[in-house]
């Protein structure tokens, strides 16, 4: 994938204004324009515009805002990742816990990993995206320009989040689990998750988040969490049967197969984390 200039050049048949603010305050002011939309990595918005499914009057690129990029370890041991940090940067950082590294390393291809951002992924909340499962499993906090939102409250259905119009994700704060694993059954062409399972084990609880499977988007598999809190082993969930009626059914996999994959990938996550 080329530079932003090349990408925007491909959209010149559309009538829109393109802005590249260098600070958060400049971006927020730009987003006050009528029909303005933030552009993070552009992995979803630009293809959507090419298909004429979106036509913002103003594109506000966040790519030049240095204060939205970077990874740091906080005094309480948690990790903060800037909303503009790319997947490649997450994958290469030594402070990141294993499950999150594995997730970032296996998103798309090198072009996607060097362009796409964690903030863009979470804000878009694609039902087959990987980062929503990580944030929900780890109990992350999404920090915006105006507030902090727990991951449990942030995701509100397929492509729906708690973000208000023009609200920007500045960073994501992750508690660090003692054990973690991300297991993804990959759709070969897109590298999206047909089913992805992120498991986070903390001292007092285990959290399991599923992406790619449900018609409601990312969700916590609470039945599995309760079982794993009692017995952290593959065997504790062997007899579970997930109801397929709420699963996604498409050309790639039936509802029943996705329901089956949720259990299979969760067992793999437990084995990998142990």
Tell me the layout of helices and strands:
Layout: H1 4-9, E1 17-19, H2 24-30, E2 36-39, H3 45-50, E3 58-61, E4 71-73, E5 79-82, H4 87-92, H5 98-105, H6 110-115, H7 118-124, H8 131-138, E6 141-144, E7 148-150, H9 151-154, E8 169-174, E9 179-186, E10 193-201, E11 206-211, E12 219-220, H10 222-230, H11 255-273
Parallel strand pairs: 1-3, 2-3
Antiparallel strand pairs: 4-5, 5-8, 6-7, 6-8, 9-10, 10-11, 11-12
Description of the structure:
This protein has 274 residues and is of the alpha+beta class. The chain has eleven helices and twelve strands. Among the domains are: 4-61, Uridine Diphospho-n-acetylenolpyruvylglucosamine Reductase, domain 2 (2-Layer Sandwich), CATH 3.30.43.10; 179-273, 2-Layer Sandwich (Enolase-like, domain 1), CATH 3.30.390.50. The strands form three sheets. A five-stranded antiparallel β-sheet has the order 4-5-8-6-7. Strands 9-10-11-12 form a four-stranded antiparallel β-sheet, with helices on both faces. The radius of gyration is 19 Å and the shape is globular. 43% of the residues are buried.
CATH class of the domain at 179-273: Alpha Beta
Q: Could you name the ranges where pLDDT drops below 50 across 5 or more consecutive residues?
A: none
- Overall structural class, as computed from helix and strand content, comes to alpha+beta
Strands of the biggest beta sheet: in what spatial order? 4-5-8-6-7
Spell out the helices and strands N to C: HEHEHEEEHHHHHEEHEEEEEHH
- Provide the CATH superfamily of the domain at 179-273: CO dehydrogenase flavoprotein, C-terminal domain
Average predicted local confidence, pLDDT: 92
Number of helices: 11
Please name the CATH topology of the domain at 179-273.
Answer: Enolase-like, domain 1
How would you characterize the largest beta sheet? 5 strands, antiparallel
What percent strand?
A: 15-25%
């Amino acid at each position: 994938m080329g530079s932003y200039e090349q990408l925007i050049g491909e959209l010149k048949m559309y009538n829109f204004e393109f802005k590249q603010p260098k600070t958060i305050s400049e971006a927020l002011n730009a987003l006050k324009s009528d029909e303005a939309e933030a552009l993070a990595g552009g992995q979803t918005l630009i293809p959507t515009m090419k298909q004429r499914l979106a036509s913002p009057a103003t594109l506000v690129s966040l790519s030049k805002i240095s204060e939205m990029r970077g990874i740091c370890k906080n005094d309480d041991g948690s990790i903060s990742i800037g909303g503009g940090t790319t997947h490649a940067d997450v994958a290469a950082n030594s402070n990141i816990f294993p499950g999150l590294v594995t997730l970032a390393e296996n998103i798309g291809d090198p072009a996607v990993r060097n362009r796409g951002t964690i903030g863009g992924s979470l804000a878009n909340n694609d039902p087959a995206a990987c980062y929503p499962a990580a944030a929900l499993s780890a109990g992350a906090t999404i920090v915006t320009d105006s507030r902090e939102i727990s991951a449990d409250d942030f995701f509100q259905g397929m492509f729906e989040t708690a973000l208000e119009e023009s609200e920007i994700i500045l960073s994501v704060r992750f508690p660090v689990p003692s054990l973690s694993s991300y297991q993804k059954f990959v759709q070969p062409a897109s590298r999206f998750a047909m089913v992805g399972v992120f498991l986070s084990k903390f001292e007092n609880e285990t959290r399991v988040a599923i992406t790619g499977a449900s018609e409601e988007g990312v969700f916590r598999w609470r039945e599995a969490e309760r079982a794993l809190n009692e017995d952290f082993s593959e065997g504790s969930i062997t007899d579970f049967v997930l109801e397929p009626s709420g699963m996604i059914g498409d050309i790639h996999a039936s509802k029943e197969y996705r329901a089956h994959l949720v259990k299979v990938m969760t067992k793999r996550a437990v084995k990998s984390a142990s």
